[in-house]
Amino acid sequence: MSRIVEKYAELPKPFRKPLWQWWHKKMNKYDGDNIANFMNYGFSYLNGDPEIQLQNNDETDRYCIQLYDHVVNKAEIEGKDILEVGSGRGGGASYITRYYKPKSYTGMDITPSSIDFCNNHYKDVEDLSFKCGNAEKLPFDDNTFDFVVNVESARCYNNQDAFFSEVFRVLKPNGKLLLADMVYPEELEGLKNKFNKAGFIITTETDISPNVVAALEKDSARREHLIDTKTPKILRKSFKTFAGTVGTSRYNNFATGVFKYYSYILDKSQK
Questions:
Q1: Containing domain of residue 196, as a range?
Q2: Which residue, 1, 60, 98, 220, could crosslink 246 as a Cys pair with Cβ 3.0–4.6 Å?
Q3: The whole model's pTM is what?
Q4: What is the CATH number of the domain that holds 159?
């Protein structure tokens, strides 16, 4: 598996889900000290825009947190019911719950070890819970959530149409999907067609590729140090590719525009 990761920055869709599950399981295995609470590529403000204010214990994860903040900061989520699909190690769920004060926040992931990690690691965060489930068949009733958050996860799903349809189903009337992910430029129109097919209206579409590249550059040393101290030597190259550290194929694809990175706010249409 590690040789596949090293050779390819992006695999055909049927291989993406098992590869990401493998990556999550390895992180859960090797990070016994609970240091890596985020697995996204991050967001850095540009052109002198002020950075968000963080508590001291969140400062280490600034760039990963800023991606989550970018995704939710234009949505009025205080006092609302939130679902995150693909919550991973739970850092984003914890940040949003602590800083934005939703009524409830449910993090859902397909990897049982990630859910076990989150339920233990964040058990003291009020109004936050985690549940194991499949993004293509969400284990929730219709019209349950005001917002669904999805960060760097939808790209891995074998059936994105099913995912968007399921999100539409579990959202309350006038609910919103807050989405951020990478995409090949030639796939962009197809992705937006999937939004429309599910019934969503695109409220905002933002190309944040430069912000992601800047974050990877600023956060690369921290990511490499974490990988070098937490993983066996034989896996380090593949982990660094996944983490997008400077010089890897994943970083180069972002920096040269082979990959683009977009964020969206999608409204549940009331046709």
A1: 2-268
A2: 220
A3: 0.88
A4: 3.40.50.150
